[in-house]
Amino acid sequence: MGETLEIKVPEYPKKIDGLVCEEIEGENTYFYIHEEKGTTITLNIIASAIFDMCDGTRTAADMAREISQTLDVRYEEALRDVKDILQELTGFGFIEI
Fold first, then answer.
1. Structural domains for the chain
2. Helix%, strand%, coil% for the chain, nearest 5
């Protein structure tokens, strides 16, 4: 039976140091490179905005509230999306644990 491993996201997510971000022109997509580790991740404009908020001072709820107000979406929907993105970023090693 397959069990799903849940990734523990810190209460106050903070992106790792040493990242280089490049915008992919005309695609609303951002390419993040951790040169020391040799890892990369590509994010759309919303995921990138959430990642940029990962400064160690905001919770997922804080980020969702800001996204909800800025993009005029329901808070619950924004929170679900923020949590999904944070889990993915943490799983790929782009959030400090």
1. 19-91 (1.10.10.1150)
2. 40, 25, 40
13-39 pLDDT tens trace: 999 999 999 999 889 899 999 988 889
68 — phi, psi (to 5°)?
-60, -45
| Secondary structure of residue 3 in the 3-state scheme | coil
Q: Report the alpha-carbon distance of residue 45 to residue 80 in Å, rounded.
A: 17
Q: Over the stretch 36-72, which tens digit does the pLDDT of each residue have?
A: 888 999 999 999 999 999 999 999 999 999 999 999 9
> Can you give the pTM of this predicted structure?
0.88
Residue 43 neighbours by CB distance under 10 Å: 21
Residues facing 42 on adjacent strands: 31
